[in-house]
Amino acid sequence: MILWRPIAILAMLLPALAACAGAKPRSTRASIAPYALSGPVCMQALAQRGIVVQPWGGGSPGCPVDTPVSAAAGAMSRFDPALQTSCAMLVAWSEFEAAVDRAARDHLRSRVVAIRHFGSFACRRMTGNAGRLSLHARARALDVAGFVLADGRVVMVAAGWRGPRDQQRFLRAVAVAACRHFSVTLTPDSDRLHRDHLHVDIGPWRQCG
Known about the structure:
The chain is an alpha+beta fold. It has one domain (28-208). The protein is 32% helix and 28% strand. It has helices at 6-21, 39-48, 87-94, 97-108, 157-160, 165-181, and strands spanning 28-29, 53-55, 68-73, 78-86, 112-119, 125-126, 129-133, 141-149, 154-156, 184-186, 198-201, 205-208. The strands form 2 sheets. Strands 1, 2, 3, 4, 5, 8, 9, 10, 11 and 12 form a 10-stranded mixed sheet that branches. Strand 8 and strand 9 (154-156) form a beta hairpin.
């Protein structure tokens, strides 16, 4: 019988752990889908955050949206244009806004007053996996294109990701915070399809890239 000492086992595991640390992030299944909010409970959560919403028809027969809402603003910043999304996605975004504002103050010395976006709802298949509906099909995702600052500057992902140093730092700080908050965060470093926006969602998968 061979008795394995803890040190010997650790020595065998270290190379594998090192390889994993340098690997490119992959999508993995999350144990519980975040923000499982719906109906009156979700609407109450928005009201508690001071977010005013309007009715939105929401989705389509093939892509239904749970508790669809339309909002001109979140808890801290307005949307440009108004955002049509699911109640759960709006709650998730409202809880992330403080991190965005903090990153702007730290790196750009100004606060964020508006979020420019490419939308939340789109009835389509997942990019790169036609066998599964995109989280956009249920309005549980948002594509963020840029940020308007209180001092009048506009920081767009397309130009700023590899643009002026302060904008790079700000956008990357937002992306790092998004990885901690959302299920999936995709950036211009992920692939060419995300070269001009940050994708965030509250689906059942985990990925930061």
